[in-house]
Amino acid sequence: TTTTVTATTMKILQKELRRGYKMVQHVELVRAHWTDVYKEARFFTRHRHYLEFDFMATTEPIHAAWLAWGRQQLQGLVQLFETMSSNIVTLRPWPEWVDFKDAEWPFATAIFLGLHLERNTGDSQQEGKRRSFDLREPIVKFLEAISAWPEAERNANRFELLIKHMRISELEHWLENRQKGVASTQGSAGTAIQSVGNQARGGAMGSGAQLSITEEDVEQSGLRECSL
């Protein structure tokens, strides 16, 4: 093991290895083809809720430096969720970073994390009371860490991180626009949680900000049928 392999990462790796082993068995029994083994994962249709992290900048060097810092901090985000919110949500990070066109920023890259919300926890739920999945604490800790970028002051107003909660329908629309080359706007899809970097947008999230997903969202989206 390594320091970058968390409990969540280990579960993902183990599941993918088991899936691959079963698929190879099906190939040997002529129930599947080798193309099925190497088929691309259905990450962008597997979940019903996602977190989107948009790293944007005015120049390529600033964007590259901002991304490098972001990669370091995102390694700890899964661990933050494991420590603070593992009883209500599990993250499934997508390893590929996705470049996209933004209406305001010349250089923009997004990273996506699938959310698997746990419907049954040890806490008893009051009958008739709608449950809310509050993901605020790990997000605030993450923002505190990423806001400490050593080059932030020198590049003030020339970089930004925008975090969004995306439902699957919104993500499908985002991907479709990206494929068409349509520039993304800040309010085009998803629910923005907060931004970091662009002072005009207010800086990092305060303690009063909240990312929550209600149980009604879960039921309407069919999330109970979604698995990692």
Task: Give short descriptive properties of this protein.
228 residues; alpha+beta; six-stranded antiparallel sheet; two-stranded antiparallel sheet; 8 strands; 38% helix; disordered C terminus
Could you explain how this protein is built, in words?
- This protein has 228 residues and is an alpha+beta fold.
- Helices cover 38% and strands 21% of the residues.
- It contains seven helices and eight strands.
- The strands form two sheets. Strands 1, 2, 3, 4, 6 and 7 form a six-stranded antiparallel β-sheet that branches. Strands 5-8 form a two-stranded antiparallel sheet.
- Strand 3 and strand 4 (107-117) form a beta hairpin.
- Helix 4 (60-84) packs antiparallel against helix 5.
- The chain is globular, with a radius of gyration of 19 Å.
